[in-house]
Amino acid sequence: MYQLIVFGPPGVGKGTQAELIAKKLGLSHISTGEILRKAVSDGTELGIKAKAIMDIGNLVPDEIMNGIVKEALAGSSENGFILDGYPRTVEQARALTYTFSELNMGEVTVINLIADDEEITQRLLKRGRTDDTRETIANRLKVYYKSTEPVKQFYTELGIVKDIYGVGDVDEISKLLLEELH
Ligand code: B4P
């Protein structure tokens, strides 16, 4: 049973690594970014609200995200889950702790992926999603340092963070990550 959170700045490879690890270990891959993008493409009420926020690189309100994740966790695989892109604020991290206790879930491991801003900016410009413009990337990084990076301290104090250097060959990074889990 694995209970994992993949953490790091925008474009560091959270989605890329979470997908590989989930496949390898048979885990539910819970990507809040993907859930929001699906809501946008389905044109739901959530999607309409989320699109405007995501397009400028801001964060969707905590209370919305907390409800989405609680529902996804309740339906996750018996092998465990990998949370990708959540929590992104200390408030979300606190809500997650509460959700874990409500669902009788035990300890989590936080994988902190590391890459510098220039590497990240180049990757995202190359990917070219609608929220991958130079202006939006700059705002996403600003939001990351202000609101999301403190989450790392929250988990560091619990002694559950594993740092992984996220630059280099995707499969090599994945291998390093799996080694940390065994
Ligand atoms: P996300 O979908 O979570 O996207 P991300 O942070 O931009 O990307 P990620 O780190 O997953 O990078 P990826 O693997 O794709 O969030 C999008 C938006 O949704 C947020 O800005 C926010 O508005 C909203 N949102 C999501 N969760 C939220 C929450 N909890 N609360 C509030 N709002 C929320 O990799 C990026 C690129 O790099 C790809 O092209 C990939 O191919 C490439 N790449 C990956 N690894 C590489 C490597 N080792 N070398 C070279 N390239 C690599």
Task: Give an overview in words.
The chain is an alpha/beta fold and 182 residues long. The model has no long low-confidence stretch (mean pLDDT 96). The chain has a single domain (2-175), classed as 3-Layer(aba) Sandwich (Rossmann fold), CATH 3.40.50.300. Helix content is 58%, strand content 14%. A five-stranded parallel β-sheet has the order 2-3-1-4-5, sandwiched between helices. It binds BIS(adenosine)-5'-tetraphosphate. BIS(adenosine)-5'-tetraphosphate (B4P) binds next to helix 1, helix 2, helix 3, helix 6 and helix 8. Residues 10-16, 32-33, 36, 53-54, 57, 59-60, 65, 85-86, 88, 92, 123, 127, 131, 140, 166, 168, 170, 173 line the site of BIS(adenosine)-5'-tetraphosphate.
Question: Briefly, what is this?
Answer:
58% of the residues lie in helices and 14% in strands. The protein is an alpha/beta fold and 182 residues long. Helix 1 (14-25) packs across helix 8.
